[in-house]
Amino acid sequence: MENKKESSTFRQPIALVTGANKGLGQQIAKELVGHGYIVLLGSRKFDNGKAAADEIGQGAHPIQLDVTNTQSITAAAEHIASEFGRLDLLVNNAAIGQSGRYSTLTEILEASKASVAPLDELRILFETNVLGVLAVTQAMLPLIKLSTSGVILNISSAAGSLTLNSDPNFPYRPYFNVTYPASKTALNAITLALAIELEDTGIKVRAASPSFTATAMNNFQGTDTVEVGARALVLAALDTESPTGSFTGPDGKLPW
Ligand SMILES: NC(=O)c1ccc[n+]([C@@H]2O[C@H](COP(=O)([O-])OP(=O)(O)OC[C@H]3O[C@@H](n4cnc5c(N)ncnc54)[C@H](OP(=O)(O)O)[C@@H]3O)[C@@H](O)[C@H]2O)c1
Questions:
Q1: Ligand 1: centre distance to CA 92 (Å)
Q2: Engineered SS bond to 130: which of 155, 186, 191, 227, CB 3.0-4.6 Å?
Q3: What span, in angstroms and rounded, lies between the C-alpha atoms of 212 and 232?
Q4: CA nearest 209: which of 256, 153, 157?
Q5: Nearest CA to ligand 1 atom 25
Q6: N-term to C-term CA, the chain
Q7: pLDDT at residue 1 above 60?
Q8: Would you say 232 and 210 are in contact if contact means Cβ atoms under 8 Å apart?
Q9: 174: Cα within 13 Å, side-chain hemisphere
Q10: What is the DSSP letter of 148?
Q11: Cα–Cα distances in Å, from 160 out to 20, 29, 188?
Q12: DSSP character for 201?
């Protein structure tokens, strides 16, 4: 790999995608490579990230990154600093749908109701989907500040929109609950807070939702392929121009 000391600035933009060893994360990484990015594929198991990067080919590099592990996050930030000297795009994609204790969707939905949801289930979900995003972002921010066109993209979900779920006509309203959907609501709050804080820096902070995509997270019950599902995400990742603080999905703007 080219050394930062030999080439003080990489001409190619540098991106980090968390949870990129499979699913939408790997697809985002693949498309960013296609757009000329050097992409670091974050993976909590290095070998899975390596296999995913090998599948993509040149321009894709695995990096060990567990978003719930401070040591892992620090080591990843140090590695990016020493190898690349900056970060142009951070895609906070890694997330979990549940802790692993449930087997069926019906079981998850029943156990996710505000009246009964186990608090330790919420803690596990929020640790990855919310605090993990904030921890990675805080660690990478000094490197993003060195970019001339920094973008932070948080992969959220329309399921987390309070505006949509307040509407009695929203078809997914019955599925709004305090576990996964609420973790995406909290992620939206973090996205907006960061966008407001960084308004004067030129760094664009965005949230984007894929369409319902067949991935491990939903036991491949999603209706779209990763190619289709990732479209809105890649669009948002490449958007260095439009105003910060956006929340978009497959049909354009989404309400917070
Ligand atoms: N699929 C959909 O229809 C849909 C809809 C709305 C939003 N989303 C969002 O899209 C994003 C990608 O999800 P997906 O559907 O592609 O699911 P997925 O195939 O299950 O991928 C999730 C990724 O996150 C990683 N991950 C989980 N915990 C992690 C941790 N602690 N540290 C690092 N990586 C971790 C997983 O790694 P392992 O392989 O090690 O588990 C995996 O690479 C998520 O933010 C999800 O909420 C998906």
A1: 10
A2: 186
A3: 12
A4: 157
A5: 19
A6: 41
A7: no
A8: yes
A9: 4
A10: S
A11: 22, 24, 8
A12: G
Strand 89-92 and strand 60-64: pairing? Answer: unpaired
By the 8 A CB rule, do 248 and 191 touch?
no
pTM of the model: 0.96
Locate all alpha helices (DSSP H) within the chain, ordered by sequence. 23-34, 46-56, 70-83, 105-111, 119-126, 132-144, 162-166, 180-197, 226-229, 231-238
Q: Which residue minimizes the CA distance to atom 28 of ligand 1?
A: 95
8 A C-beta contact, residue 235 and residue 246 = no
Q: Say if CB 38 and CB 58 are below 8 A apart.
A: no
What is the spatial distance between Cα 158 and Cα 181, in angstroms, rounded to a whole number?
9
More confident residue, 2 or 14: 14
| Ligand 1 binding site (Cβ under 6 Å of any ligand atom) | 18-19, 21-25, 44-45, 48, 65-68, 93-96, 128, 132, 155, 157, 209-210, 212-213, 215-218, 222
Q: Tell me, what's the pLDDT at 180? A: 97
CA 239 to centroid of ligand 1, rounded, Å? 22
